[in-house]
Structure formats: structure tokens, C-alpha cells
Write a structure and sequence with these properties.
Largest sheet: 9 strands, mixed
Number of helices: 12
Helix content: 25-40%
CATH superfamily of the largest domain: Glycosidases
CATH class of the largest domain: Alpha Beta
Number of domains: 2
Shape: globular
Structural class: alpha/beta
Distance between the termini: 30 Å
CATH architecture of the largest domain: Alpha-Beta Barrel
Strand content: 15-25%
Strand order of the largest sheet: 15-14-17-12-11-10-1-13-16
Length: 530
């Protein structure tokens, strides 16, 4: 579907519509297989929270990819993590075409060569023998381009300090010099140093997945010391900046980069404004996983005295396998409904911020090579629409096993919306095998033994019922019994990209709507005062 048609079909501005009319046919007694949903539009229970964060900049990281700035604006993406930009924004990273991880991710040798050449030419601090106090020691141009593209997309920068996936295993430079370089990068982007900017970058995340040898090969104790020096250097620039880490790969796995890292920060009175972690539902395909993992992380932070520290999921998705064999799952309706359910479940979680991996048109992102939307991108557009009705309303009837729903009301009381994402774990689901390429771990450390890691155990009590559709009642509409309003329903299914499947008029302070919506399916219902 081209962008013009998409905008006309799924536009929430109320200015113009192209739609297929389906006269409303309320069912006096909906099928028993339908879920009964009840919304009280007169009871505000809180706010609709935004989880519109992504990994991946809007500006293309490789030749042949589109600029998705307008698409990011369309999806109201509000935070973007600077991970896996492949060179720009990285520190102490060198790339080679022979790296097995990079070859696994970018199998085309020509594209990989171009990526490697551009990545190595983009180093912010190319000579670690140079003086970090001098502006001429830095090459900011490439990183500036990506940081400012995030700002142009009206999103906040979440700066990841470290290396992207597929970088070579090079020894880290002097820790004091490393911390000084990070300090001057922050000064460049927040205080205008070295012909810089005033971007007000708040979040500074230290490293990525140190619990796997693909990103960190030194000892945990060295990791702690480097974090200590870097965190203190950043706070010396501006104490109000948020510093944290460590982008843990397996959030449920205890160890030196979870308990050990948090305990070190506590005992050394280090700043830890947030703890970041990752979750891919590789072994469960369960969209409620992040809520469960988040509870465990929250308890750990609180037990160490970090009651104010935020919990950040800086990577999440249905699977971390971004190779061709998982393309249909990642780009299709299964993932679209998974995303919708996960974002709705995050509303009632202890998670403060989340970044979906991945947003752009690079390996299995939200968009195609011509900027076309894949189905999960449409889901993010629906969750963005809910932010226009931020007063969260009482809703009964949804569950935590796949039938997810949320309702909201606009501040002026003229619009009420209900978002439903109906998801089922595929029948007879078996975790797909995912094995990194041979020799992908550095020579001086053993490869990760995933069999010894503690993964979040799949829930055993999931039984789906009454999820073939919905019977929705919205009562106490804010315009009262004499008010008239417009009803619009937008639907995303396996067979169709978003369409307005119903536009009708109604009156009064209550409405009942019943429709089939088998999983996987996403539906947005809009009630707007005329």
C-alpha cells in the first residue's frame, strides 16, 4: 500500500476519509465466543502511557535504505536509541568484512563492504593517542547527521555508549581517557562544545549486552570501574542528565551484570538513574513477558535502594533472529498483534521506557526498502493514536494472555477511543532454533552457554476462551444523552492493511458494538462528538 492511500485510510485527523462503508449491525445477543468488554467513559483511572520508542535512526544506515523521518513522525515515535547505527555514535569500535557476526547480519558482501568502509570512516574519536580535551581530536560529522535526524523526527535521543553489533573485539583504551571522551561528546551535543548543539540529551546508556561476549570481553570488575568513571564524568557535565546501564541481554538471568552491577553501584554510591535490559520472546512468544521480567527488575532495584531508578527495556521484539528465516513472522500479522498486546500490557507494568528493536528499514525493521509499512508499523500507528485520548478509562473484560484492550478519552471530552489487540501464541509453538555463526565469540573467552542461563519460564496456565470477537459497551459518554457522535472502526488483519471498515452515526451516552475479531487482529474504535 502506498503512503497516500495509507494516510487516507488510516488518518485520525477527521479531515478526510476513504472508506468502505459497513452499516453497523449491533447484535442483540453476541456469540458466546465473543469477549464482553465494558468501558465507563465517565471514569478516568490514569493516563495512557507512551511506549513509542525504537532502536534505529530515521536516516538510513546503509546504501539502498529509505529515509523514514516522515514515517517516524506519523507513528509519533518519541525516543530513539542510538544502538546499531554501525559506526556513527559508537566508541572504540572497528569493523571488518570478515567479522562472522556482521556477515551473519549483512550477508551481501558488497553491502557489507560499503557498511564497513562507512563505519570505520565515521569514528567519533579515531585516534586514541589524541588529546580528548581538544576539539580537533574528534570527527563529529557522521554522528551529528544521525543525532540531528532523530531531532528532525521530533524524537528524543537515547544515547547508547559503546559498540554496535558486529564490531571487532578490540581492546578498550585507557579508562580515564574513555570517560573523558564520553564527557566531551555530551558537551558537544548538550552544551555546544566544538561547534556542537543544545540537544538536551537526557538518557546516557552505558554499553550493550555485557553479559554476552559479542560486546564485552573484559572482566565484570573492569566493567564496573569503566562505568564508574564514565558515569561520574557525565554527571560532572550536568547532574540532571540520566546515566545508567547496562542493557542486559537476558533480563531474567542473575549474574555479575545484573546483581553484581547494581550492588556495585549501591556500595560505591554511583549514579544509577535507570537500569536497562532486553527481552525477546524467543522461547515463549508471550507478549506479557516484559511485565513479568519488569517486576523482577523492579524488586532488585528497590532491594538495593534504587527506588527512583527507572526500568528501561531498551530492546524488545517477538524474536531476536533478524535473518531471512524469521522475516514473515517479524513483518507479519503475528508480530503486529504481539506488538499491540505488549504495548497495552506495558501500561500497567513497572517499566518506564521501552525501545522496540528495530524501527527503520534495516534488517527486519518496521519498513520496506521503499518506505512501505509492514504490519507491526501499523500497530504502532494505532498505539500512537491512543495518545490523542490520554485520559485512560475504566475497561473490564480484557486479559493478560492475549486479548488486550485499552480505552482513553481526550482532554476536551470530544473523543473516546478503544484499542483491541487480539493475539494467540501459535498452536504447538516451538522456539525456533537460533545459533550464532561459528567462531563468532572472541578467541580469549568461551562462547555463551545458553543452556546454563536462566530464561523467563513460559507460563503454563494459558487457555484461550471467548476470543473470536468482541461485544463492547461504552457507557457514560461525555456528551450526554442528547449528544450525537461519529463511529469509526479501523481494522488490521492478515487479509488487509488498515481500513476504515465502518463509519456511522449514533446518539446518546451509550453504545454497543459487536464484531468478530479472531486472532491475530487489531482494531481501533473511535467515537467522536459531532
Amino acid at each position: 500500500m502506498n503512503r497516500t492511500l495509507f494516510n487516507s485510510l488510516f488518518c485520525l485527523s477527521g479531515l478526510s476519509f476513504a472508506f468502505a462503508q459497513t452499516p453497523p449491525t449491533p447484535l442483540s445477543s453476541p456469540p458466546t465466543s465473543f469477549r464482553v468488554l465494558q468501558v465507563d467513559a465517565g471514569k478516568v483511572t490514569g493516563r495512557v502511557r507512551s511506549f513509542q520508542g525504537l532502536n534505529g535512526p530515521p536516516y538510513p544506515i546503509m546504501e539502498g535504505l529509505p529515509d523514514v523521518t516522515e514515517a517516524y513522525q506519523d507513528l509519533h515515535i518519541d525516543t530513539i536509541r542510538t544502538h546499531d547505527i554501525m559506526g556513527p555514535t559508537d566508541l572504540a569500535a572497528h569493523y571488518s568484512t570478515a567479522n562472522p557476526l556482521l556477515a551473519w547480519l549483512v550477508p551481501d558482501s558488497r553491502q557489507r563492504t560499503l557498511l564497513v568502509d562507512a563505519a570505520n570512516a565515521s569514528a567519533i574519536f579515531p585516534d586514541w593517542n589524541a588529546d580528548p580535551e581538544k576539539p580537533e581530536s574528534y570527527h563529529f560529522a557522521a554522528s551529528d547527521k544521525y543525532i540531528q535526524s532523530i531531532r528532525k523526527a521530533h524524537a528524543e535521543v537515547y544515547y547508547r555508549i559503546g559498540r554496535s553489533f558486529g564490531a571487532d573485539y578490540t581492546a578498550l583504551p585507557d579508562f580515564d581517557k574513555f570517560a573523558s571522551v564520553v564527557k566531551h561528546i555530551a558537551m558537544h551535543y548538550n552544551q555546544g562544545w566544538a561547534d556542537g548543539f543544545h540537544d538536551n540529551i537526557r538518557y546516557w546508556e552505558f554499553w550493550n549486552e555485557p553479559d554476552l561476549p559479542f560486546f564485552w570481553t573484559e572482566t565484570p570488575e573492569q566493567f564496573y570501574r569503566l562505568y564508574e568513571k564514565t558515569a561520574r564524568a557525565l554527571k560532572a557535565v550536568d547532574p540532571s542528565m540520566k546515566v545508567g546501564g547496562d542493557a542486559l541481554a537476558i533480563a531474567s538471568n542473575p549474574g555479575p551484570y545484573r546483581e553484581g552491577f547494581i550492588a556495585y553501584c549501591a556500595s560505591h554510591k554511583l549514579p544509577l538513574d535507570f537500569f536497562s535490559w532486553h527481552h525477546y520472546a524467543l522461547t515463549s512468544a508471550d507478549p506479557y513477558d516484559m511485565v513479568r521480567a519488569g517486576e523482577e527488575i523492579r524488586k532488585l532495584l528497590d532491594a538495593n535502594g534504587f527506588h527512583q531508578a527507572e526500568s528501561v527495556v531498551s530492546e524488545w521484539n517477538l524474536t531476536p533472529d533478524f535473518t531471512e528465516r524469521q522475516r514473515l513472522r517479524l513483518q507479519g500479522m503475528e508480530n503486529a498483534a504481539f506488538v499491540g498486546a505488549a504495548v497495552i500490557y506495558l501500561q500497567d507494568s513497572s517499566v518506564d521506557l521501552a525501545h522496540f528493536y528495530r524501527g527503520d528499514a534495516a534488517w527486519m525493521g518496521l519498513f520496506g526498502l521503499h518506505g512501505e509499512y509492514f504490519k507491526p508499523a501499523y500497530t504502532f500507528r494505532a498505539t500512537a493514536a491512543m495518545l490523542k485520548t490520554p485520559e485512560r478509562l475504566t475497561l473490564n473484560g480484557s486479559d493478560t494472555i492475549g486479548f488486550a484492550a485499552i480505552a482513553g478519552r481526550s482532554h476536551d471530552g470530544k473523543t473516546v477511543q478503544v484499542l483491541i489487540s487480539n493475539y494467540e501464541i501459535p498452536a504447538n509453538f516451538q522456539p525456533p532454533p537460533m545459533q550464532p555463526p561459528a567462531d563468532s565469540a572472541p578467541k580469549n573467552v568461551p562462547p555463551p552457554d545458553f543452556s546454563k542461563m536462566k530464561f523467563l519460564p513460559p507460563r503454563k496456565d494459558i487457555q484461550y476462551r471467548d476470543n473470536r470477537g468482541y461485544a463492547l459497551t461504552v457507557s457514560n459518554l461525555p456528551w450526554g444523552k442528547n449528544g450525537s457522535f461519529l463511529v469509526r472502526r479501523y481494522r488490521l488483519t492478515e487479509e488487509r492493511n488498515p481500513e476504515v471498515v465502518e463509519e456511522s452515526q449514533a446518539a446518546g451516552d451509550q453504545i454497543k458494538i459487536s464484531n468478530p475479531l479472531p486472532p491475530p487482529g487489531v482494531e481501533l474504535i473511535e467515537l467522536r462528538r459531532r
